[in-house]
Amino acid sequence: MILPIVAYGDPVLKKLGEEINKDYPNLKELIDNMYETMDGAYGVGLAAPQIGLPIRLFIVDTSPFAEDEALSPEEQKELKAFKRTFINAQIINEEGDEWAFNEGCLSIPDVREDVFRKPTITITYVDENFEKHTETFTGLIARVIQHEYDHIEGILFTDKLSTLKKRLIKGKLANISKGKISVDYRMRFPNQKKKR
């Protein structure tokens, strides 16, 4: 089932996500719905806060990036195959020289800005079967994981922008929170007047 994506301005996007256990209600169905929601919105990642749940759960599927012809065949193959569910994740290390990449977010449609992040991360998490993993990721995969991880920490990519950039997009962000935006996927807006 496709769920509405929470728009910028909703307090749930600023909450620190809580850890869950394998008895979390309807977890398998929730994960399935998140993948369906992400795919329906042409996303490469989706975190539980974006569907209104302040829990430490996010999903990543980098296969849409694999179509970028500027990438090497090895990079394309790696991105095409990467699909993962992260529960109770903790980034334990970030290293390397920060690099800029133009990021967007399903909760902040039509806003894209360069964000600087480190290229290599090591993360611990449990998967949908609650098996524990500690893995190191680099490049675009690391970037998407960092973006989604920020969501479960209550951080948006716009929080990482300079004061000037924030000022320049302030009007756009206000319009998003009021629902004054056209998107081709379901959204839930915090400041939208309820229809009577």
Automatic annotation (TrEMBL):
Q: For this protein, what is the EC number?
A: 3.5.1.88
Q: Which GO terms describe its biological process?
A: translation
Question: Which Gene Ontology MF annotations are present?
Answer: metal ion binding; peptide deformylase activity
Catalytic activity, per the record?
Answer: N-terminal N-formyl-L-methionyl-[peptide] + H2O = N-terminal L-methionyl-[peptide] + formate
Signal peptide, first to last residue: none
Superkingdom in the source lineage? Bacteria
Q: Where do the annotations place Fe cation binding?
A: C105, H147, H151
Matching entries from InterPro entries are given as: Peptide_deformylase (IPR023635), Peptide_deformylase_sf (IPR036821)
Tell me, what's a Pfam family for it? Pep_deformylase
Names of required cofactors: Fe(2+)
Q: How is the cofactor bound?
A: Binds 1 Fe(2+) ion.
Q: Give the active-site positions.
A: E148
- Purpose of the protein: Removes the formyl group from the N-terminal Met of newly synthesized proteins. Requires at least a dipeptide for an efficient rate of reaction. N-terminal L-methionine is a prerequisite for activity but the enzyme has broad specificity at other positions.
**Family in the record:** Belongs to the polypeptide deformylase family.
Task: Indicate what this protein is called per its UniProt record.
Answer: Peptide deformylase
